[in-house]
């Protein structure tokens, strides 16, 4: 039976987050915590693969205790099991330290049931890097498949997958051995509304929660802030660009002024009768 | 880690069907500036099959040294094979900085290399600088959905790595005949060591939306109200012969497809004229269009951030202003010596 692990994250909804204009810091309380939208597609794809070939979908997250809510959301989508690693020692992790911690948790999950496929969202909307997925793949020494927009085939018996990977001007069809890790694009599927039975399941569901001490062979120095090579040295509001000229008058007058400015840029336009 | 062993600014040169990706040339321009500030070599790394000749172009765009891995196994980009070559090169020659284009290939490769080295990697950088004395790379990027900018450092590891968005940096003008030191390398990788195969490469057959190549971009935001309102953008773009752009929330609302999205998670554009209509102007959006030649904003809210990033602004209702614009431009095209905007 296929065992798919989807890695997910609870994130502040960056569309709603507000800035404190005095301190230039984020008011995190202003933003609701949500399941990272790209990860919802990862979980949905895992569930679709399970429905096609049979198997189990586990979700894994690292986060503070309230992140249980994001796991419950995944159970609503159709995941079977949820695992969370939660410990202050994980705090402040960059992508390298995050992929290390998640890999250690995957090792432990694999002891419960061997893992065939790991699926991540393309990136998180708070970090925007897309580096954790490939990082996990490298640490587990399995092939990373990024920018996946379609899963064509999963063949556990013969140990391979075929996927479509998005590239700049099209896509490539890639065959990879199993186990492997894929990070998926948003266009890979549509996440439907949760079904009522799944919502009931989710409401009752309690994920397995591990602290650092529950993970084996772990090197504390590679966790959290200490294990993170990158540091955020400065956070700043971008310099306000010089505001330009505002046109005045009624709409018609404003449009006329704008037109005279734009039409001065004659080099943009064909000259009548001229050729390309 | 002995930092003194590490020297030089490297650019991973991305190649596709015998052509160097534009972003790699842009990074050579940015890399040149960093290398000069540090007084070190600028180096390009080319990995592929039949790619050695491309080194000439890399020299012309500013590199002092080019490392080439020209082997059949590199015919197609694959994470595992390319990563092995780059790790080999990096371990042998020890660069202090490696830059990659933030493309599907560059991001994929950089993430894998960073994990194996291991070192820090800053994604989607939009500003780069280096401390002259310490060699510390200052990589800045929008963070938290573009609400703020963050400068990211990697103090304790070398090389320092960053991916950089296409079109954010400027390529130098090529200097014909400029040359440098070519270093040809090979690695022993067998096909059976690589666990992925490229079965097929499918070029997009649908008419491409290349807003990054358009001379005029007409972009709309949530201020247009709904998908029907967004049609105004299409109409003005058509009247001007420009391309349609959009803010992230418009794409997320499904009014227009993702290839039209301008900004940090979309496309960076540098048209000659950029219209921002009903767009409030989050940094995320601004980093994607701020290098446009002439920026014109139309918005109901006089306090919208977009006005501060624009050369000209009109405070008003798009549904009133845009139809007037279409009408006036059409009239101008009919009467003036200008005919129509260049086809893109």
TrEMBL record, chain A:
PANTHER family: ELECTRON TRANSFER FLAVOPROTEIN BETA-SUBUNIT (PTHR21294), PROTEIN FIXA (PTHR21294:SF17). This is Electron transfer flavoprotein small subunit. Residues 23-219 form the Electron transfer flavoprotein alpha/beta-subunit N-terminal domain. Belongs to the ETF beta-subunit/FixA family. Its cofactor is AMP. Pfam families: ETF. InterPro entries: ET-Flavoprotein_bsu_CS, ETF_a/b_N, ETF_b, ETF_beta_N, Rossmann-like_a/b/a_fold. It comes from Pseudalkalibacillus berkeleyi.
UniProtKB/TrEMBL annotation, chain B:
This is Electron transfer flavoprotein subunit alpha/FixB family protein. It comes from the Bacteria. InterPro entries: DHS-like_NAD/FAD-binding_dom, ETF_a/b_N, ETF_a/FixB, ETF_alpha_N, ETF_asu_C, Rossmann-like_a/b/a_fold. It comes from Pseudalkalibacillus berkeleyi. PANTHER family: ELECTRON TRANSFER FLAVOPROTEIN ALPHA, ELECTRON TRANSFER FLAVOPROTEIN SUBUNIT ALPHA, MITOCHONDRIAL. Residues 9-198 form the Electron transfer flavoprotein alpha/beta-subunit N-terminal domain. Belongs to the ETF alpha-subunit/FixB family.
